[in-house]
Structures are given as C-alpha cells and as structure tokens.
Write a structure and sequence with these properties.
This protein is of the alpha/beta class. Helices cover 27% and strands 18% of the residues. β3, α3 and β4 form a beta-alpha-beta unit.
Length: 137
C-alpha cells in the first residue's frame, strides 16, 4: 500500500476488535480516526473533520450500513466523502457516489488495494461541495 501522509480516514465499526485491526493495518500509511461507540460525539467529530475516506466495517450479518451511518451522524457525507463498506452483504460499488465494497472477512492486502484505489481517485464529481458539519472542509 502507498503512503498517503496528508490524508485522513475515519473508521467506524460494529466491532471494536475489527476497528482496531483496520487502524493498525493502515497506521503509518494514512492518518486514522476511529469513532468509538458511546464516546463524546462532538469531540470525536472535531477529530474527524476533513476526512478523505470513511471506512465502515460491519462484522455482524445483521448490521446495516445506513443504520450505522445514521447513528454516527454521517449520512450527509454520502456522495461527498468516499465510503468503503466492509461487509458480508455483497453489493455493487458505485463510482458516481464514491461508495466501494470489500467483502468481510477480508485480507489486509485487499484492504490496502481498496484504500489506495479510493484515495488515488480524482476529486471531481458529487464529492464536492460538502455539506456543513462533520463532512465540512
């Protein structure tokens, strides 16, 4: 995986261990901010401003991406910040809305490949302008 020193990714997961694995895998290659359940939301949002990627990792077959994004107040980011959803529920990635999918379970190499592909993509399209709030620049 390439190093992206000026890029920041937000990691959100339904599983603390999975979130930690992703953080450790990407650490040193990209700045990582993990949203933690039941933490001080405003403080987390301040740490997560200006992200170039949201990684939503769902380990439970009952977890739904839209519900997880809504609980974290990230729904407004869809289409403005690239989103990598790691889930056992397959769906087709959508380049127009900057939504990519990685099957769960996954390998670290596949995670690296997806993150590189997303971060090297052009910044045009519906990604801009960003809505106010967490996704603001």
């Amino acid at each position: 995986m390439n190093v992206h020193p000026k890029k920041k990714a937000l990691v959100l997961s339904d599983n603390e261990g999975l979130s930690r694995v992703i953080e450790l895998a990407l650490k040193g290659r990209i700045e990582i901010v993990r949203l933690k359940p039941n933490a001080d939301q405003p403080q987390q949002w301040n740490a997560a401003r200006d992200v170039q990627l949201i990684v939503l990792a769902l380990s439970s077959h009952t977890s739904e991406p839209v519900v997880a994004l809504a609980r974290a107040a990230l729904v407004d980011c869809i289409g403005h910040v690239p989103l990598l959803i790691i889930s056992e529920h397959s769906f087709v990635s959508d380049a127009e809305t900057h939504i990519a999918h990685l099957d769960f379970p996954f390998t670290i190499d596949k995670l690296y490949d997806q993150v590189d592909k997303i971060l090297q993509a052009p910044l045009d399209g519906p990604r801009d302008p960003r809505p106010p709030g967490l996704c603001a620049r």
